[in-house]
Design a protein that fits this description.
Layout: H1 6-11, H2 24-40, H3 48-60, E1 73-77, H4 80-90, E2 104-111, E3 114-124, E4 127-135, H5 144-156, E5 162-166, H6 171-175, E6 180-181, E7 196-200
Parallel strand pairs: 4-5
Antiparallel strand pairs: 1-2, 2-3, 3-4, 5-7, 6-7
Length: 203
């Protein structure tokens, strides 16, 4: 089974910042590389930035690497040994957030073997905060974020109040899951500028 070499793809002009339209042969090779990785798992040896760039570029060119409807979708909590995948595969595209295994619980969405979305619940002295919600661009608008949040609420919010801070355009999204705007956060949760604090009490 062909597996793309990191050094070759890393220097390929196709992955240069100034991408040009690839030839039909190049498009076919990139598609085969991606499909080979989906089948064998070897494609994850690529740096996440390169993997994401190939997927995003092929999507822009009208390719579907693997129909989402044919993939097994799984929502589950990430064990400690998998937590750092969130940093390396998702949060690398979203503010370079970091995992703290001493206080964080992470919940992820998997399409086949690929981690496509994640959310974090962090324990502070006087409360639990939900943040780090992120889904890869090509997997958005398919309900992954909602499914991850529902699982997190089930596991973390069954008996405790959950807090989060969100931008105005996402208030309705979290409101649908039982969160309401609150005037204040627990003292130990640092407020972030430009966000609205919300909380969800156990039902």
């Amino acid at each position: 089974m062909i597996c793309p070499d990191r050094s070759v793809l890393g220097t390929s002009t196709l992955l240069h910042d100034n991408l040009t339209k690839p030839s039909k042969e190049d498009e076919t090779l990139l598609t085969l590389y991606a499909l080979a990785g989906e089948e064998t798992g070897e494609f994850i040896t690529l740096h996440p930035r390169i993997l994401h760039r190939i997927r995003h570029y092929l999507l822009a060119m009208g390719h579907t690497l693997l129909p989402h409807s044919t993939q097994t979708v799984e929502i589950r909590e990430l064990p400690i040994q998998e937590m750092f995948r969130a940093e390396e595969e998702l949060w690398i595209h979203d503010k370079h957030q970091k995992v703290d295994v001493n206080k964080d619980r992470l919940f992820g969405a998997f399409a086949g073997r690929q981690l496509v979305g994640v959310a974090r619940c962090s324990r502070y002295i006087d409360g639990l905060e939900v943040d780090g919600v992120y889904v890869l661009e090509e997997y958005r608008h398919q309900g992954f974020a909602r499914k991850i949040m529902e699982r997190m609420i089930e596991e973390c919010g069954r008996n405790e109040t959950l807090y989060l801070q969100t931008k105005p355009d996402l208030i309705e999204f979290y409101h649908d899951m039982g969160f309401g705007v609150t005037p204040a956060l627990p003292v130990s949760i640092q407020p972030r500028a430009g966000t609205y604090p919300m909380k969800r009490d156990p039902k």
